[in-house]
Each structure stands twice: as C-alpha cells, then as structure tokens.
Amino acid sequence: MRWCSLNADESLLFDTDLLREYEPARSVLGLSDERLAAVAAASITGSAAPNALKEGAVERVAAWLRTS
C-alpha cells in the first residue's frame, strides 16, 4: 500500500486551504470517502502534532466516515 497526504502548508502563498486540496482529490482523482479518510488519517498520523491531538483527530475522521 502506498501513502500520501494532502496539505495546505503555504496557504497564504498559494491562496489555498485544505478543503480546496481535497475537492480535486474527489472530483478529479475520483477518491471515495474511504480513500479520503485514509489520506486524512495518514496526514494526521505523519504529522508532528502531539499524540493526544493526533488520536483525537483520527477519531474525528473515523466519525466523519461513519456518518458519510
């Protein structure tokens, strides 16, 4: 399995935000909700955020997927 992340690290420089990065992943690349959730979880897990913050964020992604 290969992993990737979507991000908007330079949002001011490139006039973007995270939602504008995920939209083409869905509409152009055809990623399903399951794939988008996996990308989001990989992005969170690979971040330098504190573990407690990452765990909560990954759970919120899972909750979003359950309701989509």
TrEMBL record:
Q: Which GO terms describe its molecular function?
A: deaminase activity
Origin superkingdom? Bacteria
Q: Which InterPro entries match?
A: A_deaminase_dom (IPR001365), Metal_Hydrolase (IPR032466)
What range(s) does the Adenosine deaminase domain occupy? 4-64
- What is the protein name stated in its UniProt record? Adenosine deaminase
